[in-house]
């Protein structure tokens, strides 16, 4: 377990989670924009 943690620092995991969260929020916003625009 410690070997995996050495290869992937905590900062990298935090950055990855932030990128995924922002990506999902952006995708949801674009989807909502198209849904409202279609009506």
UniProtKB/TrEMBL annotation:
This is Small hydrophobic protein. The chain crosses the membrane at residues 12-34. It comes from the Bacteria. It comes from Streptomyces griseoviridis. Keywords: Membrane, Transmembrane, Transmembrane helix. It holds the Pfam family DUF6126.
């Amino acid at each position: 377990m410690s070997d995996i943690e050495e290869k992937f620092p905590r900062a990298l995991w935090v950055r990855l989670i932030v990128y995924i969260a922002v990506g999902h929020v952006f995708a949801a916003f674009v989807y909502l924009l198209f849904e409202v625009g279609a009506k």
